[in-house]
Structures are given as structure tokens and as C-alpha cells.
Amino acid sequence: MDKLKFYFIQGISIFLGFTFWGAGMAKLFYEHQFFGWIGPVWLIEELAAYGLGLYGVFIAYSQIIIGYLMVTTRYKLLGSIMMIPLIGNILMVTISLNWKGTPIVLGFLMLLNLFILWQYKDYFRPLIDESTVSHSVKERAVRTTSAHLVWLAGLSLQIISIQISYINWIMACSVVIVGLFLSYLSFRIDKKSVITPKLEDTINQ
């Protein structure tokens, strides 16, 4: 049951991550040629008419970074926290521009995001109490510095791919895939870094 719940949460994280990461990439890719199901891809152009083009670019990059935190599932807690103001900002834009239907979709996505945050409720008590942990916190997988850096390299490739899309779309998509592969590889690096010392300790004993 716990494993089923784990995969369910991972699935929600990937869905939310792909939704916003894809939306941000589609806004910035050359001629908006990127995969995604939520829009509009022309938000920057729409906001530029009101002198808010830079704000539109800010939203796009925020979607990419926050979405990527979640689509790779490595930092889904951090991504879920950052997702709240992101959805809030987008919601205010859509309401201000009188877009129909979009606020309902965003409301549904917010509910999914809150569900993920609820799974990490044991982390929030110290923030509320403004004190050290006074209750049990669930043990979670160990993360290593080297794996963090590998994941960050994957994110960097996403940003680089945007500029490459203006030169060659296929090459840009290839860079995106390589970046995703690196970020998912970070989990294997974590496991290898944790298991190897244990084996060495056993041998030394």
C-alpha cells in the first residue's frame, strides 16, 4: 500500500511538473515549438501589449524551474512550495484578462499540489513553531552533493536548449532529453554514494 501511494504521489509530481515545465518551455522555445498541454504559449506577447512583457518572461522561466523541480521528482517538496505563488500569479493574470475556464484548471492543479504538500506535513511543524524539531520526521532517502550538481547540470541544459531552439529544433530537443537523463541519473548517484561506504565499512570490520 505504501509503495502504491509512493508511485501515486510521484505520478502527480511528474504530471504537475510536466504541465508547468512544458508550458514555460513552449513560451520561450523558437516559434513555441515545444510539447505541452496548458497555455497560452503566447502569454509573453499578450502581456507585452500592456508593458508587461518582462513579467511574462519571468513567469515562463519560473514555470520551467519550478516544473523541472517536480517533473524530475528530486525536489518535489521545494517545487510544491514554490508552486503556490506561481499558480497564484498566473491565476491573477488570467482573472485580470477575463480568461474563461483557465482559473478552474488552475484551481484543480492547485488541489493536486496541496495533496503533495500534505504528504510532507511533518516538515512544516518546525516552520510554524519557529523552533527545532519536537516531533518525529519520516526518514527519507539520503541526497548527496555530487548528485545535486548532476541534477543542476540537467536543469542548466534546459535553459541552454531554449537558445539552441533558434538554431536547430532537433538539436534543442536532444539537449532537453540529455538534461532530463542527467537529472534522473542523480538518483543512481545517490544510491551508489550511500551503498559504497557501507560495503567499505563491512570490509574494514
In N-to-C order, the SSE pattern is: HHHHHHHH
Radius of gyration of CA atoms, rounded to a whole number? 19 Å
Q: How many domains would you count in the coordinates?
A: 2
Ends distance: 37 Å
Query: Spans with pLDDT under 50 lasting ≥5 residues?
Result: 197-205
* Residue share in helix: over 70%
Helix run count: 8
Overall, the morphology is globular
Report the portion of residues in β strands.
Answer: under 5%
| Main sheet record | none
Q: Strand tally, please?
A: 0
Structural class: mainly alpha
Question: What can you see in these coordinates?
Answer:
Helix content is 74%, strand content 0%. The model is unreliable at 197-205 (pLDDT under 50). The two termini are 37 Å apart. It has 2 domains: 1-140; 142-205. By secondary structure, the protein is mainly alpha-helical. This is MFS transporter.
Key attributes of the depicted protein:
single chain; about 200 residues; mainly alpha; 2 domains; 8 helices; globular; disordered C terminus; transmembrane; MFS transporter; transmembrane helix; membrane
Question: What's the helix and strand layout?
Answer:
Blueprint: H1 2-28, H2 43-48, H3 53-71, H4 76-96, H5 102-119, H6 125-129, H7 145-164, H8 169-204
Kindly summarize this structure in a few lines.
The protein has helices at residues 2-28, 43-48, 53-71, 76-96, 102-119, 125-129, 145-164, 169-204. By secondary structure, it is an all-alpha fold. This is MFS transporter.
